[in-house]
Amino acid sequence: MNARLLPYMLILPVTLFLGVFFLYPFVLVAQQAFSGSDGFSMANFRDVFSYWKFPISLKNTLLLAAIVVPVQLALSLLMATMVSKMKKGRDLVLYVWTIPLGISDLAAGIIWLAIFEQSGFLNSMMSGLGVIDQPVNFLSYQHPGVIFLAIALAEIWRATAIMLVIIVAGIGLIPKEYYEAAEVFGASPWKRFTKITLPMLRPSLQTALILRVVLAFEVFAVVAALGGTLMPVLMGEIYAYQFDLLNSNAAAALALVVLALSIAFTVIILRVLRVPKGASI
Amino acid sequence: MNRHSKYMAAVSGIAMMCSAAVAQADVLFWSTQARPVEEAQAMRETVMADAPETVDYQANEDGPWLTRIRAELQAGSGAIGLLGALHGNFSAMEADQLVDLGDLGITSNSETFNTLSKLGTDTPQYIPWMQASYIMAANKESLQYLPEGADIDALTYDQLIAWTANVHEATGQAKFGFPAGPKGLKHRFFEGYLYPSYTNGVVRTYASDKAVTAWEKFRELWEHTNPASTNFSFMQEQLLSGDAWIVFDHTSRLAQAFNERPDDFVAFPAPAGPEGRGFMPVLAGLAIPETAPDKDAAKALISYMMTPETQIATLRATSFFPVIDVDLPDDLPPAVQAAGDAVAKMSSAHDANPGLLPSGLGNQGGEFDRIFNDTFERIVLARQDIRMVLDDQKPRLAAIMDETGAPCWAPDAPSEGACPVE
Fold first, then answer.
1. How many CB atoms neighbour CB B293 within 10 A?
2. φ, ψ of residue B358 in degrees (nearest 5)
3. At the N or C end, where does chain A have fewer CB atoms within 10 A?
4. Neighbours of B12 (CB within 10 A)
5. Contact call for A246 and B363, based on CB within 8 A
6. Residues B176-200: pLDDT tens digits?
C-alpha cells in the first residue's frame, strides 16, 4: 500500500457515509426549501417568517439557549473540578452524574412532567406539607414563566453531563507541572483555576460549547412534553409544518434557518475561544 | 466466527426469510383509525377474524401514515394493500393515486358520504367505512347544577355557560373540559359546532360580526373551563379522573369513560346557538392505492369490511357507527349506546344545523385547521382583540380557499368557484 494514499483510504468510508447520509439529504432539503410551485422561489421563507408564531418561537429558542447553556457551563466546570480533585470513588460519581445522558430526551421530559403535573410529585409534596389546599396546575397557559422554568430545569438536568464528560477529559490532559509551579509561587486555588485551568481548557470548552449550543437550538421533546403547544420553539414548528400541515417545503425552510443559526454560533464560539497558532498543551 | 455462531446466523437468516415470505402473503391494512392498542387488537382479533385474506392491520399517526404511502406512490411500487383513513386524509392525496372503486357496487346509506368519497371525480375513490361525531358528556354529579328550566337534551350555549358557572361556583373549580391539547380535536369544535351555531357558516362568515359574538361567548365558557385543558386530548381521561365534569369530544375519545363506569356519566347533544344546533360528522373510508401488490385481494377485503356483521364488529371494536343499513343488536357496549342516543337526538333536533366536513381543500386541510387553532390561541389564550385577530387571519383563510378553489360546504351557502370569505 502506498503510504501517501493510506490516510485517504482510511477516511474514505467516513467521507462516503457523510456524503450519502448527510450532504445528499442536506442538498435535497435545501432544494425543497427554495422551490415553490414554479421553480425557484423564496415563498417558503416568506410563509415561515410572516407566521405570527415565528418571532415567538425564535425568541423562546434563543432565550432558552441563553439561559440554559451558561448555567450548564458553570455547573459542569464546578463538577469537573470537583471530580478531578477526588482520590476515591471518582468513577462512581462520574457514572451517577452521567446517568441523565443515557435517558432519551422525551423520557426526561416525561420525568419532569410527572413532577410538575397537577397530580404530580411537587403538588402532592406541597399539599402533604400543608402549603396548598388543592393541587395547583403549574404547567398551564396562565403561568408561561413556570413552563419556561420547568423546561430550563429539565434541560439543565438532562444535558449538563455531556459538557461535564468533555471537560473532565480536558482537565485530565493539563500537565501537573503547571499547577506545581503555581503552588511554588503561592497562587491561590481561584487563581490557579482562572490562570491555568480555564486557558488550558480552551479546546475542550470549544467542543463542549459548540455541541451544547447546537443541541440547544434543536430542543424539542422536552418542550413538547412539558409545554405542549404553549411554548412554541423552532423545532416544534418544523414538526408542525412537516406532520400537521404536511408542508415539507416550509419545514425545510425553517430547518435551514435553524442550520444558519447553528453555523453562526459555531463560528462565533470558534473565534472567541480560538487557540493561538503554535500554542498547544 | 466459530461453527456454532455460523449455525445460529444461518438459522436466523432463514427465519428472517420465512417471516418476510409470510408478511408478503398478508394484505397490509395501513390505517389511521383504531390506533389505541386495545382497539387495534380488537380489529386484528375480532373484526378481521373471518376475513377472506390474512390481514396485517397496522395503525399509525397521520404523519407517518401519509409519509409511507407517499413514498410508495413515488417509488411506483409498494407493500400497502388497503388504506383506512378519514375523509381528510384521502382528500390530501391525488385521486389518480387511488384505484377507482365504482365497480365494487358498494355505497353507504348517505348520499352526502357517497359524494364526498368521489373526491371531486365521477367514481368513488374510497368506500365510506364508518362514521362518528362529536358530542357532549357529563358526570352525573354535575346535573344538580343545571340552570332552571334547562333540558339537557336541548341545551343552548347560554345555558351551558350558566351550567358550567354554577358548577364552578359550587365546587370552586372550573370543571368544563375542552380538548385543546396538542392532539386534541378543538378545531372541529370551532369548524363544526361554534361557527355553524352562531354564524350559520364557517368560511363565508369567518370574520363576521356574528363570529365576534361567537368568540365572546366562547371566552365566557373558557372562564369556567379547566385551565389544564390546553393539555387535554382525550376527554375520557379527565371524565374518569374527575378533573372535568362537563366535556365536548369525539365519540370514540369518550368511549372508555362510558365503558368503564356507565352509570356515572351521561351523553347529550351539543348545544344550540342563535343559528341552530350546529354539528358535524366524522367519516372514515377504505381505499386501495395504485401501488397495491394484490388489488383483487384488497377489493375482497373491502367487500368483507362492508358486510353488516363486520360493520357491527367494527362498531364494537372502535365505537364508530356503520355507514350501511344494519339492525343494531341490543347488547352493544355502553359507550356505543350512549353515543348513539346522543347523536340521534342531535340530528333529529328541530333546530338541527348539520354541517359537513371541510372538503376540496386537498393537502391544505391542515392549514385550514391551523387558522381556527391560531384564532383560538390568540383570542382565548393570549386574549388579543377579537376583531383585530379575525381581520388579521382573514386574508390567510382567503388565500387557502383561493389556492385550492374549494367551493363552500354546508352550512355555508353554495358558491360558484372558491368559497369567499366575506
1. 15
2. -55, 130
3. N
4. 10
5. yes
6. 999 998 889 999 999 999 999 999 9
Per-residue confidence (pLDDT) for residue B21, from 0 to 100: 44
Q: Phi/psi zone of residue B417: left (φ > 0), alpha (ψ -120 to 50 degrees), beta?
A: left
Q: Is B227 on the interface with A (CB under 8 A)?
A: yes
Do B90 and B125 contact (CB within 8 A), yes or no? yes
A243 in reach of chain B (CB within 8 A):
yes
C-alpha cell at A212: 451544547
Subunit contact B227:A140, Cβ cutoff 8 A: yes
Query: What CA–CA distance (Å, rounded) separates B299 from B296?
Result: 5
Chain B positions touching A230 (Cβ under 8 A) are 230, 381
Query: CB of A280 within 8 Å of any CB in chain B?
Result: no
Residues 135-174 of B with CB under 8 A from A: 172-173
Q: Using a CB-CB distance cutoff of 8 angstroms, which residues of chain B are in contact with residue A53?
A: 374
Indicate the residue type of B2: N
User: Residue B1: what pLDDT?
Assistant: 42
CA distances from A80 to A167, A173, B222 (A): 6, 13, 50
What pLDDT is stored for residue B23 in this prediction? Answer: 45
Distance from the Cα of B327 to chain A's closest Cα (Å) equals: 38
Cis upstream peptide for B322 (omega within 30°): no
* Summary count for chain A: helices (H), strands (E): 15, 2
Indicate yes or no: CB of B366 within 8 angstroms of CB of A118. no
For residues B73 and B87, what is the distance between their CA atoms, to the nearest angstrom?
Answer: 19
Bridging pattern class, strands B55-59 and B27-31: parallel
Look at residues B349, B209, B230 and name the one whose alpha carbon lies nearest to residue B279: B349
When computed from its CA atoms, the radius of gyration of chain A, rounded to whole angstroms, is 23
Least Cα separation, residue A212 to chain B (angstroms): 28
> Are the C-beta atoms of residues B245 and B175 closer than 8 Å to each other?
yes
**Where are the extended beta strands (E) located within A62-132?**
none
* Spatial CB neighbours of B148, under 8 Å, sequence gap ≥ 6: none
A-interface mutation test, from B171, B178, B231, most A Cβ less than 10 A away: B231
Provide the residue type at A214 as one letter. V
Q: Which residue of A has its CA nearest to B231?
A: A228
Give dist(CA A28, CA B35) in Å, integer: 32
Q: For the domain with range A54-272, which CATH number is right: 4.10.910.10, 1.10.3720.10, 1.25.40.390, 3.30.300.30? A: 1.10.3720.10
> Do A244 and B63 count as a contact with CB atoms less than 8 A apart?
yes
pLDDT of residue A17: 95
Handedness of CA B330, B333, B335, B336 (dihedral sign): negative
Q: Are B125 and B98 in contact (CB under 8 A)?
A: yes
Instruction: Give the residue ranges of chain A where pLDDT is below 50.
Output: none
The C-alpha atoms of residue B316 and residue A23 are separated, in whole angstroms, by: 50
Which helix H or strand E contains B136, and what residues bound it? Answer: strand B127-139
List the domain boundaries for chain A. 54-272
Smallest Cα distance from B105 to chain A, Å:
33
Task: Write down all domains in chain B, each with its CATH number in brackets.
Answer: 3-131+282-346 (3.40.190.10), 134-280+361-404 (3.40.190.10)
* B237 at interface of A, judged by CB pairs closer than 8 A: no
Positions in chain B whose pLDDT score sits under 70: 1-25
> Rounded to whole angstroms, how far apart are CA atoms A145 and A227?
11
CB B404 within 8 A of CB B418: yes
CA torsion sign for B145, B147, B150, B156 is negative
Nearest residue on chain B to A140, alpha-carbon basis: B228
| pTM (2 d.p.) | 0.80
Q: What is the pLDDT, as a whole number, of residue B7?
A: 53
- Cα dist. A142→A56, A122, B96, B226 in Å? 17, 18, 48, 11
Q: Which of A52, A141, A224 sits opposite B381 (nearest CB)?
A: A141
